[in-house]
Description:
By secondary structure, the protein is mainly alpha-helical. It has one domain. The protein has seven helices and two strands, in the order αααααααββ. It has helices at 2-9, 19-27, 43-52, 63-72, 75-78, 80-107, 110-117; strands at residues 125-126, 131-132. The chain has a two-stranded antiparallel ribbon. α6 runs antiparallel to α7 (110-117). The longest helix has 28 residues, at 80-107. It is a single-pass membrane protein. One of its GO terms (cellular component) is plasma membrane.
Amino acid sequence: GILLYEVYSRKDPYEGEDPKEVLRQVADPTINKRPPCPAVCPGQVEYLMSDCLAADPDKRPSFEELDQRLKRANASTLEPGEVLHSLQQLKKEKLALRRSNELLFEVFPKHIATALSQGRKVEPEQRDLVTIFFSDIVG
């Protein structure tokens, strides 16, 4: 179910959320936190994703059943070529993100790199002997 979400949304399912809190909510059957089905997801895939993310593990399809359901699904609905392309694109995007984060943490102090990787504004810091100025040159 999570893989189907990633393929069709091209996002991490709980992006920007606290991992510990997400795990707690996913594991708590009263909350049953699951990612929403992407709007671009075909109907058959939406049902499959929903079944795969069922709160009760006994109600989730087995891999054999998944295989059978995917084989029975209309190929034009699933657009396998696009799914493969999406998987490849997702892999490239994750690799690029990982490389950019590695570079951030090599170049900047940890607290600055963390803020930048989370998209937060980094305020200038002033020290008695050194001032660090961050500037963005446009144009």
